[in-house]
From TrEMBL:
Its EC number is 2.7.7.87. This is Threonylcarbamoyl-AMP synthase. It is an enzyme of class 2 (transferase). Required for the formation of a threonylcarbamoyl group on adenosine at position 37 (t(6)A37) in tRNAs that read codons beginning with adenine. NCBIfam families: L-threonylcarbamoyladenylate synthase (TIGR00057). It is found in: Cytoplasm. PROSITE patterns: YRDC. The keyword Nucleotide-binding applies. Belongs to the SUA5 family. It catalyses: L-threonine + hydrogencarbonate + ATP = L-threonylcarbamoyladenylate + diphosphate + H2O. The keyword Lipoprotein does not apply. Keywords: ATP-binding, Cytoplasm, Nucleotide-binding, Nucleotidyltransferase, Transferase, tRNA processing. SUPFAM superfamilies: YrdC/RibB.
Length: 349
């Protein structure tokens, strides 16, 4: 398959390209496009054959439901009812990095929702994404635009790397601002429950309704008794080729332990990358340090996390040592992704 790539510099000057991509969606094709969270791989959510192409291109398990993307807050065509609390969340956080799970109407094909009676819906903040949805005249189903299991792409070059020759069209825009996927809140249950942490934090959600809780299985190693409620959260994910280990604890001890591990592994001939922050980087004299951002603003860390994991692979790293973060605010989303990348290999110091 030949993949067409178009880069959008400004919505105004490049609308023709977005129109062209929208035609692809209308004709049942696949389009990778930017969103503020990560890049998505889209197809017409109401067209079962088109949605099937997404699963194929990504190598995605069929039991993992997709999120549908809308360009307006008017979602009655797709869902059976909108509880008051969902309305409040939509008012407060849309457009933005929040996905809401509601009971779906039959217009949504079973393949899109992986045979569930519910569907996740999100109105992205990214203007290119919204324009694409609007011009496609439908709702666009879109998982992250990576090969299943790899870290989600936050720029179009990574979409090309994973999907060239497997999708019809790649729309390139800026680097994704948030860097981790949307927060998912299940509003089919009372109280609503966060199934995946993201840029909209539990603290922010609780300000709208204090009854909202977080799925207990999110931060712990999935086990027999503790299965995450979002089907996708059970899969190995965000995993680079290198082995990832998280070192978690007080700053000084973390740095000491990482220095020791870097030295030991380099002696054994291993290539070691360190995922660190501005505040700590000068402590490391061996290994390849990657500065994710600043501990004073964890959104900077979230923004560069997936790209850093991919860079470690580019460098042929054998081992990635990641500093851990406090599970507060965006730190919850960061630790969730790191835990999965590490297969929950954590050393507490
Ligand atoms: O930020 C995002 O949400 C990105 C961009 C492209 O919008 N999309 C994204 O999609 O992250 P994906 O497919 O990579 O992740 C969707 C997650 C999966 O874990 C899936 O299991 C869960 O949402 N999910 C979807 N529908 C669900 C449902 N009805 N009930 C429970 N979980 C659901
Ligand atoms: Mg994904």
């Amino acid at each position: 398959m030949k993949t067409k790539v178009s880069i959008i510099k400004s919505i105004k000057d490049d609308e023709e390209k977005i129109k062209e991509a929208a035609e692809v969606i209308k004709n049942g094709g696949t389009v990778a496009f930017p969103t503020e969270t990560v890049y998505g791989l889209g197809a017409d959510a109401l067209n079962a054959k088109a949605v099937e192409k997404i699963f194929k291109a990504k190598g995605r398990p069929q039991d993992n439901p997709l999120i549908i993307h809308v360009s307006s807050k008017d979602i009655e065509a797709y869902v059976k009812e909108i509880p008051e609390i969902a309305n409040k969340l939509i008012d407060k956080f849309w457009p933005g990095p929040l996905t809401i799970i509601l009971w779906k109407k039959d217009i949504i094909p079973d393949i899109t929702s992986a045979n569930l009676d519910s569907i996740g819906i999100r109105m992205p903040d990214n203007e290119i994404a919204r324009k694409l949805i609007e011009l496609s005249n439908t709702t666009i189903a879109a998982p992250s635009a990576n090969i299943s299991g790899r870290p989600s792409p936050t720029d179009y070059e990574r979409c090309i790397e994973d999907l060239d020759g497997k999708v019809d069209y790649i729309l390139g825009g800026a680097q994704s601002d948030i860097g981790v996927e949307s927060t998912i809140v299940d509003c089919t249950v009372v109280p609503p429950i966060v199934l995946r942490p993201g840029g909209i934090t539990l603290e922010m959600l609780k300000k709208v309704d204090s009854s909202i809780e977080i799925d207990n299985a999110i931060l712990q190693k999935p086990g027999e008794n503790l299965k995450p409620k979002a089907p996708g959260m059970k899969y190995k994910h965000y995993a680079p080729n290198a082995k990832v280990t998280i070192i978690l604890g007080e700053r000084k001890k973390t740095v000491e332990k990482i220095r020791e591990m870097v030295h030991y592994n380099i002696e054994k001939g291993k290539k070691v990358c360190i995922l660190t922050v501005e505040e700590n980087v000068e402590e490391y004299t061996e290994g390849i340090s990657m500065v994710l951002g600043s501990v004073l603003d964890l959104s900077t860390v979230a923004k560069s996390l997936f790209e850093a994991l991919r860079k470690c692979d580019d460098l042929g790293a054998d081992l990635i040592l990641a500093e851990g973060y406090e599970e507060e605010g965006v730190g919850v989303a960061i630790m969730n992704r790191l835990n999965k990348a590490a297969g929950f290999d954590i050393i507490e110091v």
